[in-house]
């Protein structure tokens, strides 16, 4: 079963995503970018297949997490879908250029997100 790490500072969003995805995926949630980064460093033998990553989070933004992941080859195989309220072209381009696999703006369709997850995980 593919594993997904959800990093979002909004508890309701984390729980909604967990509920929608837990029947088909192993889902782990973290509260912000710093917890996401710490999780990745602490679990080198159990990295997620996909991260759903918010941009605007306290401590460490989604962009900073992406930048740190790009500095290490061990994270190259992790797919990343940015799921954020920031929907401007500059935000989308920056995320994709920083290594994100896909980008979705909030509010979002759960069915569309699931379809995108299936596409990137194969």
UniProtKB/TrEMBL annotation:
The keyword Phosphoprotein applies. Residues 3-121 form the Response regulatory domain. SMART domains: REC. SUPFAM superfamilies: CheY-like. InterPro entries: CheY-like_superfamily, Sig_transdc_resp-reg_receiver, WalR-like. The modification 4-aspartylphosphate is found at residue 54. The keyword Hydrolase does not apply. Keywords: DNA-binding, Phosphoprotein, Two-component regulatory system. One of its GO terms (molecular function) is transcription cis-regulatory region binding. PANTHER family: PHOSPHATE REGULON TRANSCRIPTIONAL REGULATORY PROTEIN PHOB, REGULATOR OF RPOS. This is Response regulator receiver domain-containing protein. It comes from Haloarcula quadrata.
